[in-house]
């Protein structure tokens, strides 16, 4: 086998008794090497798991000299093993070191020696060899597949909206601004809100999974400057109906993990989360419950972090807060006809953590202009958006779900950075 012959025939997980007597080729990294004289036992790990390799003869010296975590490709015959952890093993006929790992490594990718999260993130590519970390991102990928299948089955089509925008999408708060060509001011989008509303005009039901940006100077375990959001918008649906879609989507992702990814959940250190019906609490119910707990609040007050933590202790798990005061919501949210101080809106919570926000949108251009003025925003700045509402805009509703936070909950992590490959926050721009 030459150095140019780098193709493997099997992954480590596929090496089983059905292959005894057959010659195979595996590629991966040296996790352990045990020298017992005339032979050595090598543990080779790839993305699917690990296998044991017996190294003898001409291959022995090069194998023993190779640093752990070096990339190798091994050819050999599958045979029965007497090892406790392996039912079969590979007797190597060729053991080629492709790339040596330079020691000392910044972290231990096996996870046996724990490192602080910042140190692990500094060496994220190496950190991903840790089976626990790998499991998190296998789950993240599986969840995205369920999201697409769930929304696709309900008539939504996937879209991609601009991330470089020329005006503030929701009033200008917490936006990253920069100089565009010809010294024009541009921003990084914090939401696809205005675009997805416009798209209901012709595409009816749309969804997007994409990165968004928020210049919020918060350094907590739940905030990021760049985050992944799942957004939907649907024509001719009211807010209760899109809330039903969100509930169904979250339930299906959790069910997928519980039924088909038990091994990854266990590896990630997560417990199964079963979701039946998600309770829906009105804002006013929450205010009353908090008052009984000694949290003094008046109608129209936003729910503080401490209030949400107390509410989460009363309602552990997932729950909706619905019918928020109109003054707490963005200009495009529709009021309730029977009580115009309330809005047709909702937030999805997990304990104290906000995961999603949504509601019915205003579709009347006159009402939108009026609401913009009431919130101190200049309607002229939104004319490019508002003109679409003169072309027969249907009533529509939608939501945005913080996918990173959902994964943080479902994989049992305490820090959102654990579920993001290369997180960006107030202090981190590398790697």
Describe this structure in a few short sentences.
This protein is 28% helix and 28% strand.
Ordered list of secondary-structure elements with their pairings:
Elements: E1 23-35, E2 39-46, E3 49-56, H1 60-65, E4 71-80, E5 88-99, H2 117-122, H3 124-127, H4 131-152, E6 157-158, E7 164-165, E8 176-179, E9 185-188, H5 193-203, E10 205-213, E11 226-235, H6 239-260, H7 262-268, E12 279-282, H8 283-292, H9 305-314, E13 318-322, E14 335-336, E15 339-343, E16 345-350, E17 353-361, H10 365-374, H11 383-386, E18 396-402, H12 403-410
Parallel strand pairs: 3-5, 6-10, 12-13
Antiparallel strand pairs: 1-2, 1-4, 2-3, 4-5, 7-9, 8-9, 10-11, 11-18, 13-16, 14-15, 16-17, 17-18
Helix pairs in contact: 4-6, 4-7, 6-7
Spans of at least 5 consecutive residues with low confidence: none
What class do helices, strands and sheet pairing give? alpha+beta
Helical region count?
12
Strand content: 25-35%
- Rounded to the nearest angstrom, the distance between the terminal CA atoms is 36 Å
Biggest β-sheet strands, sense, barrel: 8 strands, mixed
Query: Numbering strands along the chain, what is their spatial order in the largest sheet?
Result: 6-10-11-18-17-16-13-12
Oligomer: single chain
What is the number of strand segments? 18
């Amino acid at each position: 086998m030459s150095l140019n012959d780098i193709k493997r025939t099997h992954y480590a997980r596929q090496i089983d008794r059905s292959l005894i007597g057959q010659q195979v080729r595996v590629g991966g990294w040296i996790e352990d090497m045990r020298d017992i004289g005339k032979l050595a036992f090598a543990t080779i790990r790839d993305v699917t798991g690990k296998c044991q390799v017996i190294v003898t003869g001409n291959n022995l010296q090069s194998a023993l000299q190779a640093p752990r975590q070096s990339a190798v490709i091994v050819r050999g015959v599958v045979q029965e093993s007497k090892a406790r952890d392996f039912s079969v093993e590979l007797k190597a006929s060729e053991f080629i070191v492709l790339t040596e790992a330079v020691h000392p490594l910044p972290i231990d990718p096996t996870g046996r020696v724990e490192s602080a999260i910042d140190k692990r993130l500094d060496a994220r590519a190496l950190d991903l060899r840790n089976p626990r970390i790998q499991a998190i991102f296998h789950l993240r990928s599986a969840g995205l597949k369920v999201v697409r299948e769930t929304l696709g089955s309900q008539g939504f089509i996937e879209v991609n909206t601009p991330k470089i925008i020329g005006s503030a999408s929701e009033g200008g708060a917490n936006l990253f601004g920069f100089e565009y060509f010809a010294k024009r001011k541009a921003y990084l989008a914090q939401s696809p809100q205005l675009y997805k509303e416009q798209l209901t005009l012709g595409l009816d039901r749309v969804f997007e999974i994409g990165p968004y940006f928020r210049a919020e100077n918060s350094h907590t375990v739940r905030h990021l400057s760049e985050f992944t959001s799942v957004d939907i918008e649907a024509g001719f649906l009211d807010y209760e109906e899109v809330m039903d879609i969100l509930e169904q989507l979250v339930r299906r992702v959790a069910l997928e993990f519980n039924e088909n990814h038990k091994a990854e959940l266990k590896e990630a250190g997560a417990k199964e989360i079963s979701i039946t019906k998600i309770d829906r609490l009105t804002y006013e119910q929450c205010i009353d419950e908090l008052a009984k707990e000694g949290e003094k609040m008046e109608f129209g007050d936003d729910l503080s972090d401490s209030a949400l933590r107390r509410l989460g202790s009363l309602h552990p798990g997932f729950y909706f807060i619905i019918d928020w005061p109109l003054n707490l919501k963005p200009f495009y949210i529709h009021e309730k006809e029977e009580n115009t101080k309330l809005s047709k809106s909702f937030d999805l919570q997990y304990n104290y953590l906000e995961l999603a926000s949504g509601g019915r949108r205003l579709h009347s251009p006159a009402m939108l202009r009026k609401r913009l003025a009431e919130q101190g925003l200049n309607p002229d700045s939104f004319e490019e958006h508002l003109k679409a509402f003169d072309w027969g805009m249907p009533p529509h509703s939608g939501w945005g779900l913080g996918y990173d936070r959902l994964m943080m909950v479902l994989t049992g992590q305490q820090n959102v950075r654990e579920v993001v490959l290369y997180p960006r926050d107030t202090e981190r721009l590398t790697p």
